[in-house]
Amino acid sequence: MSHWSFADSSIVILAGIGVLALAAWLGWSNWQRNGRRGKVALLEALRFVAVAMLTFTLLRPEFVQEIQRTDPPQVAILTDASGSMQTRDVVGTNNIVARGAWIDSQNKRAFWTPLEEAGSKVLVGKFSAPPELGATNALSQAREIGTDLSGALGSVLEQQSNLKAVLLLSDGDWNLGSSPIGISTRYRDQSIPVYSIVTGQDESIPDLAMEEVAAPAYGLLGEQIAIPYTVQSHLPRDVATEVRLMQGTEQLATKKITLPANSRFRDSIMWYPREVGEFDLRLEFPVEPDEGLRENNSAAFHIAVRVVKLNVLVVDSQPRWEYRYLRNALARDPSVDLSCLLFHPNIGTGGGRDYLSSFPGSREMLSRYDVIFLGDVGVGNRQLSEKDAGLIKGLVEQQGSGLVFMPGRLGNHLSLMDSELKELMPVVLDDAKPTGVGLQNESALTLSNRGRGHLLTRFDADEMVNEQIWKMLPGFYWSTAVAKSRPGSEVLAVHSELRNQWGRIPLLAIRSAGRGKVLFMGTDSAWRWRRGVEDKFHYRFWSQVARWMAHKRHLAEKEGIRLSFTPESPKVGDTVFLQATVLDEAGFPLENGKVNGAIVSPTGRGEQLELSEVEGGWGVYSAEFSPQEGGPFDIAIDAPEQDRELKTKLTVSLPKREKLGRPVNRPILDEIATITGGESAGTDQLGEIIKKISILPEPKPAEIRTRLWSNPWWGGAILLLLVVYWTGRKLAGLV
Q1: Quick one: which H or E segment has residue 43?
Q2: 20 to 30 A from 499, CA-CA: which of 362, 455, 630, 660?
Q3: Which of 244, 277, 305 marks a domain boundary?
Q4: How many CB atoms lie under 10 A from the CB of residue 357?
Q5: What residues form DSSP beta bridges with 170?
Q6: Cβ(653)–Cβ(216) under 8 Å?
């Protein structure tokens, strides 16, 4: 069956008829006026046909063909088989069962039989099922696993041509794919209702879960390593428990914590490795008696422990107390290769063991340093030059080195604000007080909220004990004149006494600068922390600073080549930025060279990268990629012309989207049903939903609509007639 359909009203149709009548009258008049010639009659006929076609087009005509359905109507039943369906919160006849087990029990009794008896063809299928264990398990473990409601509904709509309705049995835990609202509108347009049975409860199961462990890629032998973690509590009470760091059955570290009721708790545990190697560890805590789930209280991770030699440069203008004790602490550290430069006022540079006679004034000489300490020194005569300041800035931003500002009472640091180093300073200095602020009474550093949990200010694994240690540390009588912190900086500690219109004066602040890190220490009296405890806190603090700043430079390295990556512990879908620092055969930063990269995914897929050179002449080459698989990636970087090659591994974590114990996502299932004209109900109303589907009318006949008004061939035909008409008029000599 077929017919024409017009979208305009009867008034428009009458107007069109009037236009046609007017066109006919004008054609007749022109034919009469031009002597009733045959050529004129043909031209006027062409114009009338073109006008008629245009008028017909304005009525938006559509040729509709109706195709009667001969196959029985189809009802698709989609059952959710994702990991979250293993949550045990469905009340059965005798006990509480898992969501998936309840669906299996309904399938065994063929709950869709009334639909078949009503003449419908029932199609039963699963979606979002996790991969089965077997030969392909290694491949499947690298892929994201989750629930894609949109994909499941879309595949049914594309594969079936006589759908009457869709019944969805799911907990609604949509965590992959596009929004199901989009596909729901397509169901609505085709008058196919989607019904849903919400499988599960609206409240979370009482539970504690170790959600995430964000361990660094490596740590240093003999130094504390902070291992951040996140615990999710769904218990209605506070829980006092103990987090344990385990290697097999051996307990490496513990920490007592209190988990607030129904909240997410983030913290870190400290570990002191005693040997070098690769370690597979896990974090865990005991199972509480009222937990509904007992298998998610631990998380495994991998970490490497290395021995790394740090190259540190300390530059100052005079041997003040802070300089002396800092130099002694670093010189005694077997993991530090120390270089010192002392600009004695009026008498030249200092000399002796570990001393330099001049500043390393070239990229190749300076690029070896992981951390630079700038004391009471500035830009000027017999100190640093403008070129030196530019080199330090390039080293930090390009090669990821660390920079520590340690101003002193001479006020030389203010001259740095007239150099390129101004952009790196974490605070805004007070120019009106170049020699700083002195007090008669002792003041102290007070930790900020950020500082209480930061690695640099951690003297004890317990935050409460750590804060007490900071309160007991000897104070200071002088500090740098600071106005406020700069945007993008993190303030770790403030002046305990002084404040201004912006709040308390920041004296310990950090910020990122390019690929490196910068720290500002606003007092020169950290050496007083040695009182009664010797090096315990003074050395610990500066040791943590040096290692924290140099960490990224030693993620992967070999002679003449070094590779860093950001983020250090990426997840699937993150953009990973690779930065390779390459030296040529003479030890100079490579310029205008060719650096290649190759990445092999856990499933064996290879990807070639050509790293592009970063401007600045520091031998830095960068590239980026976005991992779509979880697991260890093999990365190889080489500069064939310089015989430099480096191979390393980067572990990409696969987010666990399917989590047990979470409540059902009822709103999304309700919205799908509302948009499509269906209904959403609980498990106890499955029979009623089946009855409603069985009495639905059969699908309407399929329609094929040919829209003549938007057909390019139709428009081309009208244009052709007008061209022929206009050309004919010129040839016939008509004006």
Answers
A1: helix 38-58
A2: 455
A3: 305
A4: 9
A5: 198
A6: no
What would the two tokens of residue 460 be? 């004890």
Return the H-helix or E-strand segment holding 507.
strand 503-513
Helix, strand or coil, per DSSP, at residue 83: helix
Q: Specify the amino acid at residue 693.
A: I
Token couple for 551: 């960490």
With contact defined as beta carbons under 8 Å apart, do 195 and 673 qualify?
yes
* Mean pLDDT, the chain, whole residue set: 88
Q: Tell me the two tokens of residue 611.
A: 């790293």
How many domains does one find in the chain?
A: 5
Both tokens of residue 441? 């009474």
CA nearest neighbour of 80 among 96, 104, 114, 97: 104
Strand order, beta sheet including 348-349: 348-349, 336-344, 310-316, 371-374, 402-405, 516-521, 503-513, 490-500, 445-447
Contact 625/650 with Cβ under 8 angstroms?
Answer: no
Boundaries of domain holding 84: 74-203+662-700
Q: How many angstroms separate the CA atoms of 436 and 476, rounded? A: 13
What average pLDDT does range 615-628 have in this prediction? 89
The more confidently predicted of residues 578 and 295 is 578
173 contacts: CB under 8 Å, gap ≥ 6: 80, 82, 84, 147, 658, 662, 664, 665
Residues 533 and 597 in one domain: no
Please report the pLDDT score of residue 293 as a whole number: 83
- One domain, residues 228 and 241: yes
Token pair 């856990």 in the structure block, residue: 602
Residue 657 domain-assigned?
Answer: no
Residues 550 and 560 in one domain: no
Distance CA 356, CA 285 (A): 52
- Are 549 and 540 in contact, with CB atoms under 8 Å apart? no
Half-sphere exposure of 556 (CA within 13 A, CB side): 21
Mean pLDDT of 109-115: 91
**Helix axis angle, 666-676 to 180-189, nearest 10°:** 20
Residues 678, 621 share a domain: no
Sheet bearing 561-566, strands edge to edge: 556-558, 561-566, 576-582, 620-625, 606-613, 595-600, 631-639, 644-652
Contacts of 175 (CB under 8 A, 6+ apart): 146, 147, 657, 658
Q: Would you say residue 125 lies in a domain?
A: yes
Q: 639: closest CA among 566, 576, 559?
A: 559
Tokens at residue 466, please? Answer: 């750590």
Give domain status of residue 275, yes or no: yes
Q: Is the pLDDT of residue 133 over 50?
A: no
Per-residue tokens: 723: 């061209």
Whether 370 and 494 share a structural domain: yes
In three-state secondary structure terms, 258 is: strand
Please check whether residue 270 is in contact with residue 225, taking contact to mean a CB–CB distance below 8 angstroms.
yes
259 lies in the same domain as 352: no
CA distances from 403 to 75, 327, 427, 537 (A): 67, 16, 14, 21
Per-residue confidence (pLDDT) for residue 465, from 0 to 100: 87
The structure tokens listed for 710 are 């938007």
